[in-house]
Amino acid sequence: MQFIMPGMHRLPPLPYPYNALEPVIGEETLRIHHDKHHKSYVDGLNRAELYLVEARKTNNIEYIKYWENELAFNGSGHILHSIYWTVMAPLSTGGRPGQRTVFHVNQYFGSMEAMKSQFIDATEKVEASGWGILAWNPAWWRMEILQAGKHQNLTQWSAIPLLVCDVWEHAYYLDYRNRRDEYVNAWWNLINWNEVERRLELAMKGQVPLVE
């Protein structure tokens, strides 16, 4: 793990070219989503952290409520987007669900198909903007599927995201317009199961992959 100084978060590079996820996600969508939207969360997180550094020095907490909200919103947006890029891969290159993933999915959900069905349904039905998330919760030593409102709402404490699907409109509107269900079903074919397995292995060891 690496200590990241306040205000020093960086936009991670995509692990593939902008057109690598076509035809499921178009080049223009990916470029705008990564370079504009994700960067805005990184910038917002850095601003919030630097303000809070100054507030601690001066004991000026007049706007603490606003900046704490910015910290949660932008920090969560940065983390989830950083995971989102890595749990996708070009079609037919993401491998198959790994041994640990299959075991724990079967143990809790009954089957991979049952988990897939719940994940897709939950993700499609996120109210307004948010995410569908498959997480490992070490508090109960099992997986769970969650909806995240915006980036930071409706979570469970200690849950570690393994697989995330962005259903803010900027993630799919250029390609699918208002057909969120079509996007989510197509997106399932982009999953990088090798990365999901890696994240699960680290989560079970009490570690979380670095997000700068």
Q: What is the name of the CATH class of the largest domain?
A: Alpha Beta
Q: What form results from the Cα inertia axes?
A: globular
Number of helices: 7
Average pLDDT confidence is: 96
**Main beta sheet: strand number and arrangement?**
3 strands, antiparallel
- Helix-strand sequence: HHHHEEEHHH
Estimate the helix proportion, in percent: 40-55%
Secondary-structure class: mainly alpha
- Fourth CATH level, the homologous superfamily of the largest domain: Iron/manganese superoxide dismutase, C-terminal domain
- Main sheet: strand order: 2-1-3
Low-pLDDT segments: none
Give me the count of strands. Answer: 3
Question: What Rg is obtained from the alpha carbons, in whole angstroms?
Answer: 17 Å
In total, the number of domains comes to 2
Named at the architecture level, the CATH assignment of the largest domain is 3-Layer(bab) Sandwich
Distance between the termini: 10 Å
CATH topology type of the largest domain: minor pseudopilin epsh fold
Proportion in β-strands? 5-15%
